[in-house]
Task: structure prediction
Amino acid sequence: MADHIRAVAFAIADGQLPSNNKAGYVIRRILRRAVRYGYSYLGFREPFLCTLVPRLAGQFQGVFPELEAQKDFIENVVREEENAFLRTLENGLALLDEAMQQNKTGELAGADVFKLYDTFGFPLDLTALIAKENNLQVDEAGFQAEMQAQKDRARQAQAKETDDWVEIYPADAVAFVGYDALECETQIVKYRRIRQKDQTLYQIVLDKTPFYAESGGQVGDSGQLLLHQGQLHIDILDTKKENDLIIHLTEADLGTLLANLPDPDLSGRAVVAAFRRALITAHHSATHLMHAALREVLGTHVAQKGQLVNDKALRFDFSHFAKITEEELARIEQIVNDKIRAAIPLEERRNVPLAVAVEELKATALFGEKYGDFVRVITFEAGFSRELCGGTHVPNTAQIGLFKILAESSSSAGVRRIEALASEAAQVYVQDQLQILDDIREMLRQPRDLKKAIHDLLEERSQLQKQIEQFALQQVQALKNELLEQVVAQKDLQFLVALVKVPSAEALKQLAFDLKAQVPRLFAVLGADIAGKPQIAVMIAEELVQEKGYHAGNLVKTLAQEIKGGGGGQPFFATAGGKELSGLSRVMEKAAGLL
Result:
């Protein structure tokens, strides 16, 4: 376990977080193996590896100070990972123990091993280790077959049929000019038809294009391809990368359209949808400003872990160990808007050697991201935001206009997510919120102090709710007195079966417990129509449970069959709900015949 926490802590300090794939999955496997040892051999039922992080950081302070600097972050990431695995570990070990006990062949079936992996998060090597401790092997080939079957099912769901490329014009490479222009003269190099999920599309490759292909979290451009002296308009719906080619997607039946052209000239003009591109670009530049603001407010441990940038919004995932406070979010938003108002010009450097960009320019690079020998460096104010980035950006932060954070949440262990708006999308959002405020003022007859008016309204609602609860309690008490007269003495118990009118499931429960408090050796079955839904409650005195072995939970499950529902509970009290209201009468008949 000491070896494992060292490996995990150093990896997290270097920027690699546990995940379900690639390097992150190695970290998760190492950590889960150590957690299982602590669980099985030391009886640990709570996170414990995380408590070793401060000691480890102290031991390596003079050798690897990054551990001490990120101690809290690493500890919280490890704790979240431990909690996540401990929630399923007990059930997974129970399933594995059952499979090992029933095993007659000396080898665990691949299907069982895969279920442990898929349902309970047991990596193959962990299951193999536990099996080996019990003198068993695992059917690794069977496991791989199950894994492949799952992948095949996923692949089938995304199956894509592609025709052969129709070659039009020879071109060695595709030139992207979209950083500097939104339209350009171009020539169709080749095209092909694809079919996917009952949709037919055409892919087009141009020799030169201003269309940005989806990459780095930024969505692809849309626009038009104008051919035949502008007479033929082909709508480009999206742009993607495939094998280093920039692919333009259209729904137009390209084969038919091109076949009907009077001449074979397929040169024309590629035109990006400028307004949509401007919105996408504003959101992308806003993520750079926000990333820098996050590091300023939360700490330099913050690193980008994923993003989605389109014309409607931005979503940014980053490493951080705790929920961001309202005060911190307000500060982050303020910093970004300050930088927007400062009208900072874009500083862009292309074809910078990677080593120069990272070591000399101190540009932020994404951990685990593959970069070429030469990179593009985007800077908004030296010393504030400088990143390696291939996306499109505003020439000046003032063009972003406005930035507004919508939500902050957890994305995965040690990763938080912020959703935000920029530019026109942010302005529309603010206008909508102001309109909602105006509508609320109108509904409240234009109070001078809106907050106080809403507070008073909520207070009034709370008081009315308490009155309703008092009325309901009085109703239950009156109903209880009526039911006390219906209790029938049978042998050595008091028996009651009744349909009652109560306002809620909580009131039905309260009624059952009130009856139990007044009637010794009670055996009661109550049914109720609550907001059009059938409800059943079974109450059995503890002495009857002990003497006769009655079990309210088992009984209510049997009765619930009549209302097409289910439920359960303790031996002395249980409840059930259902779908068929007319079945309540059958429940009462069945209950009346019990004794």
